[in-house]
């Protein structure tokens, strides 16, 4: 048992940590849930982002670029007709519409005789793909096991400048958008440890990005600062996201599209078509603060205080304002 | 920041005020103590008589308990619409219900409050006369043999009784005893009394209840009361069938009928049975007086205590659930503990109250671990969700069955308590943990499983704490205070304790 003075010192340290975090404007889970998600995100709008098919269809209406849809399989008897959709395709992605955390995503990057090659290099046959689609329909990957549909879409071709920063997987860029204003951004780099997945708690590297330039600020892995990607050894300080302003414009435009006032937008960059919206998240995590080495609250408070006139500006102007306010 | 919301602040203030006012009112006006210790224990016991009336005049007589060493009867009352009721205060106290004509299923209630007291100036029963009985051969010689054996190894009436009971309880049994048991199994108490009478020991079969808080649907059990001069002692009857998980030999024994009369007599009906519910209350001696004076018809004393005992016993547990919910709130909002299923830990904690903590923890771990292994196999079969959960439920029931039987065979009656676990909840826990294992790895399973168990243990500790039980049951105002606290927690936007650790580096700029 620690002695009384040790305990007191421990409690003192705790209060010290609380105060300094508060001063730095770190956003906590309770504040996020009550002050931002609870206040800006209406419950009835959640299905728009929890279902990737709806998000995609909505994005097309609002002329927001998304990976091109090849087809949707929504019932078991369509599974046998899968080969018609896939005829002559070199690469494609199959994902569950209601999947969460990147589960159930099958990425095919090449053709090989009767079968295909996965991103990891493994071979799959038509039967394998059909079984995967059946699992998606049965709800294996959706929250609570609800029935689901499978989306088939074109595969993103990475921009070469980012290829060296990721082990397998696609590096995606997460932008927190509050009432249409980008507040903070990061990119998540898959590692061997995270098994090609871009989840920070599974060991992916989070890299905070300057809103002004798209240049890396800070890289963290398992909560510790890192200078280089652990597998490719590429220096993170050299990392710059191309077409940065277009990317922010796209992210900011998602506010008009969904009406949700506090979202995480996940964007990827296609070599030919530029930034594309991958998915939206109405309950974005807090780890982005670690990657940027600063708290979200100063930015969010600024947005809270905006006048109606400022809130009605078009996306491009909002991005410019954000870049001006939140330049480091 | 969210603007301070006036109706919300009013609501919280009102709840707090009303809650505290109710607590103080009950404390000052009715003198209910705030602490459990400085009070006397009162047991309310309710007998529910049920029978099928056949259309004729009905007369029901239920024996009622007297003050006796250890207990003082404070008040008794009966309830049964349409019946005339009188208490017969002669040598054989009882309650008598009468009705000119009744048809169908009838329920009559009798309730008595007894005070646990050590006062010895109570009237005690004097010894009954000795009655000689005879048995046919070969039982008569077996009786003689057994009584002589017990007589030679004893010194007085009480030790003789103990020796006699020991002969019935020993394993393996003496052949004479075996013979008697096989013939008189159904009326063993009377046999033992007759045998004691034969040895010149005054004794009688009496009927009593072991008082255990919150028990329902209990029946009277026979006991043997033995006199030596003016002293008497009560002995257990050997070879009784009991549920070993519920039996507590240390619980106080209330003798309901101690004069050798029938417990219940029904004229004009059939299929009669009596069931007992009981509940324990702590009240100051003064409060009793006040209660007796004001009794019902008092809106301000509106409380759970005006309900029938059976429902009160249920509420005693139900009123603890808000405490569990409050603990979950505190741990999740202020500490940031992860649990698997928001209120699953409260249900597990309720099960722990029934099973005791260690048995509960071991049982929980065994069921979940075994369930996870079997669920691992089920996931290979690629089943649809609903069938998979159904299969898990059946598996959990099978596990509980196997462990109950196995532990009973090994003589561990503690193991039988495993049946108190909520099976559907456990199945969902297994399902969620199994998915978590596949998706996030064992580390996350340990975090959430450990968090759930920790929450359950803390909730168990709070819900089984005597002070908490006393407060929640005796002061309904506590519920309003908990409500106010929960509402306040719902607006807390500060950091969680575990976030301090997670984000501490961000503070150091």
Notes on the structure:
The complex is a heterodimer of chains A (328) and B (509). Chain A contains twelve helices and 13 strands. In chain A, 34% of the residues lie in helices and 23% in strands. By secondary structure, chain A is of the alpha+beta class. Chain A has two domains: 172 residues, ATP-grasp fold, B domain (D-amino Acid Aminotransferase, Chain A, domain 1); 87 residues, Dna Ligase, domain 1. In chain A, helix 8 crosses helix 12. In chain A, strand 4 and strand 5 form a beta hairpin. Chain A is globular and about 70 Å long. With 509 residues, chain B is of the alpha+beta class. Chain B has a domain of 187 residues. In chain B, 47% of the residues lie in helices and 20% in strands. Chain B contains 17 helices and twelve strands. In chain B, the strands form three sheets. A four-stranded antiparallel β-sheet of chain B has the order 3-6-1-12. Chain B has a four-stranded antiparallel β-sheet with strand order 4-5-2-11, with no helix packed on it. Classes of the chains: A alpha+beta (328), B alpha+beta (509).
Any key phrases for this structure?
heterodimer, A: 328 residues, alpha+beta, D-amino Acid Aminotransferase, Chain A, domain 1, Dna Ligase, domain 1, 2 domains, 7-stranded antiparallel sheet, 6-stranded antiparallel sheet, 12 helices, 13 strands, 34% helix, globular, B: 509 residues, 4-stranded antiparallel sheet, 17 helices, 20% strand
Strand content of chain A: 15-25%
- Overall number of domains of chain A: 2
Helix- and strand-based class of chain A?
Answer: alpha+beta
Rounded to the nearest angstrom, the distance between the terminal CA atoms of chain A is 45 Å
Major sheet summary line of chain B: 4 strands, antiparallel
* Low-confidence spans of chain A: none
Number of discrete helical segments of chain A? 12
CATH superfamily of the largest domain in chain A: ATP-grasp fold, B domain
H-E order of chain A: HHHHEHEEEEHEHEEEEEHEEHHHH
Helix content range of chain A = 25-40%
Count the helices of chain B. How many?
Answer: 17
**How much helix is in the residues of chain B?**
40-55%
